[in-house]
């Protein structure tokens, strides 16, 4: 392995690396590989040192640097996000005193991800000074190189001995404290899902799902139906130019993760219900609620009021509703602690509360290293306050749904239990897990159950 790599367990960025510009590139592939390595290095540091979301950092970089073609953007973006997926292991040799460590990280990451830019990976391996020839990576069959996270772990332990690697390390240690999973198989399944890219999930609106899939396939989008919801479409893993899809521009296709779609189905709005989406953001769930009403009857008189403290997301919701041709969705922003809607007025109230977003770590692998345990611990008081105030808008016999995209009981079950302990008018209702069929009173959707984001939902009834 070499003396320049050590066993530091720190999650810090590799600040002690020498400038990688001192590497001598001779071939065309090496020059391109060096350029990519420099760019990824700079973007990685910007994310970690400045605690900025990687999506925003990469988006701004490509906005300013328009010289990059589609292949360049793919290599840079996928390599960067992959490094965050494996940072729990890569940080073990992040304190190296030469550029060797950075190229080792890049090569190890690309190998585990089975990336297709083989000449670049080979050049990174050459720059690293490490013999990767014993890798099980097969260029002719990359998908079979490492069938699971355990096989990647075995390879890392063999390739980088005497360092040791464990699958639990692919998420920060504090995660297991606030998201305890005792079952070893489930724990490994959680790591497996968080170490892989989720597909792009969507919903068909105002169009038959089969017809939508056929139209998408005609323009080379690998769309397939879901086994769980009749309007759900899996769009595969490749990036898609949504604005180039007529279905999207016509409002017949909305992007929404399958886990998020569970929430709307648990709400189960009737065709003529009045619902309030208290923390709507850009309105993905508001649109889904309205779509579910219209699926029951094209003459549905149901409606949704969407609220948020931010104006821009509400403006985006208005655009999306107009694009879909949906009437019956209006906005009412929060302006103070007072409800922006009437009390005891709604058939259903959805509280999709602000949370740590640990359930979305598959899509945002950088956040697991940017955030600390406080991102979970600081939320429950706010969540309970929002739930308590929002519940006042539920009419007698109405439905109250509490949801987060967190995987932590601290933000989920504990908040609901605290609310029920002080609000005797509300009782939990049994709900069916859409992926397993199990009955439960409070539902956590784990990412490994149906290739989704993680979500939590509880449904209550006001007496």
Give the structure's gist in a few sentences.
With 463 residues, the protein is of the alpha/beta class. It is 40% helix and 13% strand.
Give a structural overview:
The protein is an alpha/beta fold and 463 residues long. Strands 5, 6, 7, 8, 9, 10, 13 and 14 form an 8-stranded mixed sheet that branches. Helix 5 packs antiparallel against helix 6 and helix 17 packs across helix 18. The N terminus is likely disordered.
Low-confidence runs:
1-18, 136-143
State the distance separating the first and last CA atoms.
Answer: 66 Å
Using DSSP, what is the number of strands? 14
Largest sheet: 8 strands, mixed
Count of helical stretches: 18
Helix share bin = 40-55%
The residue-averaged pLDDT reads: 91
* 3D shape: globular
- Rg, alpha carbons: 24 Å
Based on secondary structure, the structural category is alpha/beta
Strand content: 5-15%
State the main characteristics.
14 strands; 13% strand; four-stranded antiparallel sheet; globular; eight-stranded mixed sheet; 463 residues; 18 helices; disordered N terminus; single chain; alpha/beta
């Amino acid at each position: 392995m070499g003396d320049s790599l050590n066993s530091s367990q720190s999650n810090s960025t590799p600040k002690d690396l020498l400038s990688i510009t001192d590497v001598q590139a001779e071939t065309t592939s090496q020059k391109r590989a060096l350029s990519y390595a420099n760019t990824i290095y700079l973007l990685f540091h910007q994310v970690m040192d400045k605690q900025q979301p990687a999506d925003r950092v990469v988006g701004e970089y490509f906005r300013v640097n328009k010289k990059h073609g589609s292949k360049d953007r793919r290599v840079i973006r996928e390599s960067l996000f992959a490094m965050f997926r494996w940072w729990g292991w890569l940080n073990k040799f992040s304190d190296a005193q030469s550029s060797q460590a950075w190229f080792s990280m890049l090569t190890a990451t690309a190998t585990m991800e089975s990336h297709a830019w083989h000449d670049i990976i080979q050049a990174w391996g050459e720059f690293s000074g490490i013999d990767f020839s014993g890798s099980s990576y097969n260029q002719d069959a990359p998908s079979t190189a490492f069938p699971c996270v355990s096989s990647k772990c075995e390879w890392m332990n063999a390739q980088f001995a005497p360092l040791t690697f464990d699958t639990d390390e692919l998420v920060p240690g504090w995660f297991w404290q606030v998201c305890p999973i005792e079952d070893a198989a489930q724990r490994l399944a959680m790591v497996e899902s968080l170490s892989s890219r989720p597909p792009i999930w969507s919903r068909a609106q105002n169009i038959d799902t089969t017809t939508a899939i056929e139209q998408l396939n005609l323009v080379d989008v690998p769309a397939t139906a879901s086994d769980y919801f009749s309007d759900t479409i899996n769009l595969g893993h490749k990036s898609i130019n949504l604005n180039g899809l007529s279905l999207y521009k016509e409002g017949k296709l909305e992007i929404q993760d399958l886990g998020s779609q569970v929430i709307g189905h648990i709400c189960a709005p009737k065709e003529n219900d009045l619902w309030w989406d208290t923390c709507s953001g850009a309105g993905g769930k508001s649109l889904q609620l309205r779509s579910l009403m219209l699926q029951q009857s094209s003459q549905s008189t149901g409606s949704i009021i969407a609220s948020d403290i931010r104006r821009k997301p509400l403006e985006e919701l208005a655009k999306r509703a107009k694009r879909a041709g949906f009437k019956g969705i209006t906005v009412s922003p929060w302006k103070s602690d007072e409800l922006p809607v009437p009390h005891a007025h709604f058939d259903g109230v959805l509280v999709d509360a602000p949370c740590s977003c640990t359930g979305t770590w598959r899509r945002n692998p950088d956040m697991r290293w940017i955030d600390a345990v406080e991102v979970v611990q600081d939320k429950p008081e706010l969540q309970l306050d929002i739930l308590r105030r929002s519940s006042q808008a539920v009419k007698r016999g109405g439905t109250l749904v509490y949801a987060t995209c967190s995987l932590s009981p601290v933000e989920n079950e504990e908040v609901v239990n605290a609310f029920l302990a002080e609000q005797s008018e509300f009782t939990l209702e049994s709900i069916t897990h859409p992926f397993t069929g199990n009955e439960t009173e409070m539902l956590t959707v784990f990412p490994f159950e149906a290739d989704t984001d993680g979500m939590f939902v509880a449904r209550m009834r006001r007496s």
